[in-house]
Amino acid sequence: MGNRVTLGRTGITSVKNAFGALPLQRVSAEYAVKLIKKAFGAGITVFDTARAYSDSEEKLGMVLPDIRKDAVIATKTFASTPEGFWSDLKTSLSQLKTDYIDIYQFHAPNFCPKPGDGTGLYEAMEEARGQGKIRFIGISCHRYSVAEEAVRSGLYDTLQFPLSYLSSRRDIDLAALCGEKNVGFIAMKAMAGGLITNSAAAYAWLAQYENALPIWGVQRERELDEFISYADGLPEISAELQAAIERDREELAGEFCRGCGYCMAGCPAEIRIDLCARMSQLIRRAPSASWLNESSQKMMGKINDCTECGLCSLKCPYDLNPPALLKRHLADYENILSGKTEV
Q1: Does pTM surpass 0.70?
Q2: What angle in degrees, to the nearest 10, is found between the helix axes of 144-153 and 169-181?
Q3: By CB distance 3.0 to 4.6 Å, which of 43, 79, 114, 277 could disulfide with 257?
């Protein structure tokens, strides 16, 4: 088991650390630049962002021109039309201050774009590649059916999909399928959206999969330092780490919200389902005070406005029942606030 991975037929080789730039939108430009430079200086060369991550691309663009020769940039488009595609691509290139993107990905589509499907999206990808504006075509999603179709189609160079030690057998088999089809596998949600708090266990578990490149969302320097140290030390799953993994699986695996947020679009009550439907876990796996303040209480209170219209259930890629989850977490939250349940 080495400390490097090759992303399938792209030939892109990286240390088993990719920089997830989504959290950069939560920090200052100065701090973001510090993190990016430190990561690159420590040997991290793959940086993942998206047009949807507010100013994340812009912050990467503050550093990218100085490291472009050795950096690999992956970004994404939510576009549903060719016009939107070209607009997003133009904006990404401008914000990133580059004339090409290494891996350009369809971001969370509910179908697998293909030539001749009537949308013109895949044709736009091919044209952009022909113009030299992108090098490889990728797809990033949470829907297993879409992911498997993309991998088997032969049309995609990379797949970005959740993988952690809370994943199902089906998710793990998807990573193996990527290996068989020579499709680069980029593992997102390696910390299960913050539910996994043991970074050493998360890293060691993913290190078992030779074709998986994990993306770590980095917001704090100490988090970056942890992942840098693991790449040097190649942690293996010790008895202690295995015990931690088993405890987490017992508590978290199964019917839990991954926090992808797909369900929230169009919610008539504007409920933060991605947080509220995970509150019982979040409040026990982070300093509880941060989830018991007035702002969080107001957020959780909006669950009472749920009309059970069913929109969120239709949009959940994991076939969960968000309204039922919300009620369960609200009841637990209220018991904690009243002192009936200890944290």
Answers
A1: yes
A2: 10
A3: 277
- pLDDT tens sequence across 17-28: 999 999 999 899
Confirm if 241 and 201 have CB atoms less than 8 A apart.
yes
Q: Tens digits of per-residue pLDDT, 185-217?
A: 999 999 987 788 899 999 999 999 999 999 999
pLDDT at 1 over 80: no
Q: How far apart are the first and last CA of the chain?
A: 39
Distance CA 3, CA 207 (A): 8
Rounded distance between C-alpha atoms, residue 334 and residue 341, angstroms: 9
CA 112/CA 317 separation, integer angstroms? 14
CB under 8 Å to 276, separation ≥6 — which residues? 299, 300, 302, 303, 326, 329, 330
For residues 299 and 330, the answer to whether their CB atoms sit within 8 Å is no
pLDDT digits (tens, 9 = 90+) for 168-180: 899 999 999 999 9
The Cα-based distances of 56 to 19, 214, 322 in angstroms read: 12, 19, 29
Q: Is the Cβ–Cβ distance between 109 and 130 less than 8 Å?
A: no
Exposed (0-12), middle (13-18) or buried (19+): which is 91, by Cβ within 10 Å?
A: middle
Count CB-CB contacts under 10 A for residue 2: 9
C-alpha to C-alpha distance for 282 and 133, rounded to whole angstroms: 41
- Tell me which residue has tokens 């009550």: 269
The CA–CA distances, whole Å, from 179 to 90, 149, 170, 269, 328 equal 32, 15, 14, 42, 39
**CA separation for the pair 343, 104 (Å, rounded):** 43
Helices (H) and strands (E) in the chain, counts: 15, 10
Asked whether the beta carbons of 184 and 10 are under 8 A apart, the reply is: yes
CB–CB of 111/134 below 8 Å? Answer: no
Which whole-number Å values give the CA distances from 294 to 28, 45, 297, 299, 306, in the listed order? 25, 41, 5, 9, 20
Q: Give the whole-angstrom CA distance, residue 216 versus residue 21.
A: 8
